[in-house]
Amino acid sequence: MNLNLKKKQLIDTNLGVPLVFLNRIIAIIFGALLRRNHSVKNKTPDHIIIIKMLGFGSVILASDSILAIRKKYPLAQLHIVCSESIAEGIASLQLFDSILIINDTSFWDVIISSFKNLRVIWRKSNRWIIDLEVYSKLTSLFSLWTMSYNRFGFYFNDVAFRYRLNTHNVYFNNVVNVEENYKRMAEALYVEVDEIFILPGFTPRVNTTQYKYISINNTCSELSPERKLTPSQLKFICEWILLNTSYSIALMGTKVDFDVHEEFIHTNFSNSLQRLYNYCGKFNLTEYFHFLYNNSKILMTIDSAPLHIANKLNVPNISFWGPTSPESRIYNSAMNEFIYMSVSCSPCAHQTDVLPCGGNNFCISTISNRRIIESMQRMLK
Questions:
Q1: CA 162 vs CA 117, 180, 273, 339: distances in Å
Q2: 43-188 with 213-380: one CATH topology?
Q3: Is 119 exposed, middle or buried (0-12, 13-18, 19+ CB in 10 A)?
Q4: For the segment 140-193, what is each residue's pLDDT rounded down to a tens digit?
């Protein structure tokens, strides 16, 4: 059985709930018996293990805090447990000494690879573990099963069960920028975040006028696909660029997005192929960074990892928001132009499993062409 996101969430709930109940009892009993001192002040680990299964964009948002942790404990080995889907992206950051991959192709692959990685972790002495997942029950259990002396994790009302599973609990505030939550996690390790992480091999770009492309990203992972622009909106954006600028258009994405974009181009722009390019899956991640940095005047994107990559590279960008809110993911700057209708039910993604609109994302689809043009004109200046 191949696991899509819905199946993974179903397993996390149906398997996680009874296991959490059982393991909380065990954790409470052993906590009372052992009475360990879990203070981390003036202590140094030999290994720090971070759990982040999904969302490469979230790892980029956490990168300033991860860099600060690395610098605070330079002698500690830094590891990350993640799914294969974001492993390449994490490797490109060069922040970790090792990447432990959970194979989430099928249920049994998850079980087998999880226990293989637990065996690897058990052999690491004096280890601390940080769970950066916000909702998952199974990552909380994985953290507990590492039997690490100190276990850090987020909590709030929806995941109050974690309070007895972690040794150090950090409140996750849903109404602030998520980077602030990652900074609070670092502070729980007595780490001050005072430096911006720069992608390896790059310096923040000094923008010039010598760029060929306007890059467009209308793709995202299984997480909240309702963030995407409608085909008619994407068509309008491409038409305006082709008619009103001299820039070529680079449609960006992964291999799985190639056919959709190819059909979009040939259906709507058969006479404009010389300036409209389908680059989905054409680059590895490092090449993707270089393309944005060296060739893209601006990036137009929905809320997904390319937005955060562009911000790290100092590439100007226009971002579209609806199911998620820009205040939770980006800081306003001259490099960011965001379009957000702020409808009454937004944000809803990550807040509810049942979307108020039933998936008919009017928070995105009702963004007017005029609003898009105004943003493009400002950023192209």
A1: 21, 20, 53, 36
A2: yes
A3: exposed
A4: 999 999 999 899 999 888 777 777 788 999 999 988 899 999 999 999 999 999
pLDDT at position 22 is 79
**Which residues does 307 contact at the CB level (< 8 Å), separation at least 6?**
57, 217, 299, 301, 317, 319, 329, 330
CATH topology of domain 43-188: Rossmann fold (3.40.50)
Phi, psi of 150 (to 5 degrees): -125, 125
Give the separation between CA 7 and CA 3, rounded to whole angstroms.
6
Residue ranges covered by each domain of the chain = 43-188, 213-380
Report which DSSP code applies to 230: P
What is the distance between the alpha carbons of residues 119 and 186, in angstroms, rounded to a whole number? 26
| Class of the CATH-defined domain 213-380 | alpha beta
Contact between 158 and 136 under an 8 Å Cβ cutoff? The reply is: no
Q: What does the alpha-carbon distance between residue 191 and residue 90 come to, in Å, rounded to a whole number?
A: 22
Binning the chain into helix, strand and coil, the percentages to the nearest 5 are 45, 15, 40
Mean pLDDT of 31-53: 84
The residue with greater pLDDT, 75 or 342, is 75
Per-residue pLDDT, 131: 96
Q: Which residue has the tokens 């950066």?
A: 132
How far from chain centre, in Å, is Cα 42? 31
Q: Characterise 284 by phi-psi region: left (phi > 0), alpha (psi -120 to 50), beta (else).
A: beta
pTM: 0.89
Length of the chain, please? 381
